[in-house]
Please model this.
Amino acid sequence: MKQIGKIAAAHGVNGDITIAHYITNTNKIKDIDVLMIEVWSNSFIPFFIEEIDSITHDSFLVKFEEINSREEAKKFINKNVYLYDENLLQTHSQSEWEYLIHFT
Model:
């Protein structure tokens, strides 16, 4: 499994979620059917994607089949997001961004 980002915010009232990501080939995001969310430590729960929208270089908006309200979506804020198929998407290596630690 490969970590691709973190849930940043709930969006709207229908359970949409904003995911902050570090994916380099964002054109392949639309090919994803399921994402794994680390709900508890080392528990990777699959969530099936209903729709992916608003893809930018650092975030995208996703609607999961299982999450249908803003209140439900808020429970997942700051949870890590993983992709089961490591070869589908490419991510920035962590060392590329280490220079930003403690940046002010």
Observations:
- Residues 63 and 72 are 12 Å apart (CA to CA).
- The chain has a mean pLDDT of 84.
- The radius of gyration is 13 Å.
